Amino acid sequence: MMLRLIAAWLLLTPGVAVxxxxxxxxxxxxxxxLRLGADAGTVIVGNxxxxxxxxxxxxxIIVTAKSPGRTNLIVLSADGEQxxxxxLRVGASGSSHVSVFEGGRRRTLFxxxxxxxxxxxxxxxxxxxxxxxxxxxxxxxxxxxARQRTPEDR
Length: 154
Prior knowledge:
- By secondary structure, the chain is α+β, with helices and mostly antiparallel strands.
- 22% of the residues lie in helices and 40% in strands.
- A hairpin with a 3-residue loop joins strand 4 (51-56) and strand 5 (60-65).
C-alpha cells in the first residue's frame, strides 16, 4: 500500500522523475505504450536503429521495435529536467544476444530460438553492413506499407 502511495506521488508531482519499468521488452514487429505522469518535452532514444518512439498527447510514448538490440530511452521535461529513463530491449520473445568470433572477426546474432543477424558496434564491417542493410530494407517495407493504407484505415 505504501509503495502505491509513493508511486502515485511520483507520477503526480511536477519536477519529480517518473518511475518507468527498469527495462521494457518490445518484440519485433510490435509496439509498446508507456504512460507518463508528467508532460514530455524531449524524448531521446540512444540508438534509433533499435527502436523508434512517437509522443502522443505529451504523456503517452509509443515505442516501436525496429531491429534486435538494446538501447535506452530518456524523457526530459520542457525545462530539460530528466523525468524518466529506461532500457529498451528489442528482439523475439525470450531472445538472447550471441557474439560469434571467427578469427579476428566478430558478428552479433539475436537468437530465440532462430538466430537473426543484428548490427552491433564492433562487428566485422562486412557483417555489420549486411545486417544494417537488411534492417533498413525491413524499415522501408514497413514505411511503404503504412503509406499504402486507405483513408478509412487511418
